[in-house]
Model the fold of this input.
Amino acid sequence: MVNKMNIYIVDDEAIALDVLEIKIKKIVKFTPVTIKKFINPIEVLNEIKKGAAVDAVFLDIEMPGLNGIDLAEEIKEVNAEIDIVFLTAYNEYAVKAFELYALDYLLKPVKSERLQKTLDRVIAKKVMRNNVEPAEIYVKFMRRFEIIYKKTTSLNWKTYKVKELCAYFFNQQGVFLDKEKIIDDIWPDVNYEKAKVNFYTCISYLRKMFREIGMPEMLQKNGNGYIMKLTFSSDLEELYTLLIKLKKNLNCTEEDCYKLVSLYPGEYMEENDYLWMRDRQNQIRAEYLAILENLAEKQADDNKELAIFLLNKAIELNPFREKYYQCLLQLYTLLKRKTEGLNIFKQLETILQEEFHIPPSVETLELVKVLRSL
Done:
C-alpha cells in the first residue's frame, strides 16, 4: 500500500508538462499523488539537494543547458533512491539511459498504456522499499572481505570492483572520502573519464545491493565526498576488543589466548590483496604481533605449551623475526624436545639463507649448541 507519491516532471515545453501531468493523474487516480513541474532543470536539482522527498523524476532528455542525461547523473549522485524515467522522441539515448540505471525510457508522444506500466513499477519499488526490514550485518575483514546478513547469507557481488569499492568504504567507515582519491586508489591505471564512469556504476550497484537488504542510506554524498554510515559488527571489532583487554592485563585465561589466535585466521583482507589497504594491514599485524609476543613471554614460565602455540602463530605471520625462533629453542630445550627444536632451527636457517643469504645469529647458534647437547 502506497500512502502518497511525489513525482517531478522536467521538460522545456510547458505543454508537454501539462499533458504528462494529466495522464499520470488519470492512471494513479486511486493513489494520492503530488506532481511538480519544472522547465528549468537547475531548479529541480537544487530542490533535490535540499532534501526534497521525491519518488520519481520524469526527465526530457533534449533540453537546453543541462540535458536530461547530465541531470540524471547529478540526481543519482545526490539521492540514488529516486527513480529516473527518461522522455524523448528518439531511440538513440536508450543505451546511455540504462547505463544510468534509469527505471524506464518512454518515447514521445507517451502512450497511456506504456505509462501505466512505468507507474506500476514506480509504485512497486516504493512498496518494496517501505516493506524491507533492515538486516543485521556482520563483516569479515580477516583473511577475506565478506559481508554476512541475516546471520548466514553472504552478500553476492555484481563485479570484483563493486566488492573492492565496498571494502574501501568499510575500511574507512564514518569518514568522508574524496571522490577523486577513491577513483585514484581503485582505478589507478584507468583513463580518468572511464574510471569516473566505473565509479558511478559501482556506486549505483552498491546502493542497490544495500537497499535490497533494507539499508538504503548506507552511502551519503556531501559535495565531492562520500561517507558510509552503517551499524555493523565485525571480526575486526572482536579482535580489537580482545587486544585492548590484553594490553591492559596480560594475566589472561588460556581461553583468551586461543581466541586471540582464532580471530586471526589470515591477514587483513589478505585474499583480496587491495593495494590501498596495505598500510592498515601492516598496522593491524604489528599491533597483533606485539601482544602475541608479550603473551608468549608471559606464558613461558607457567604454560610452556601455550607459549609454543603462540610463538608458532607469530612465526606464521612474521617468519623473519629471529627472536621468535630463539624463544622456541629455549622452550624446547627446557622441555627436552630436541627433535622439534632442531626442526625449528632448520626452518629459520633455510629462510635466512633463501631470503637474505645470511646465517643465523651467534646467539641462535649458541642456543642450538645447548639443545644438541641434550
Remarks:
- The mean pLDDT is 88.
- The chain has 15 helices and twelve strands.
- The longest helix spans residues 278-302.
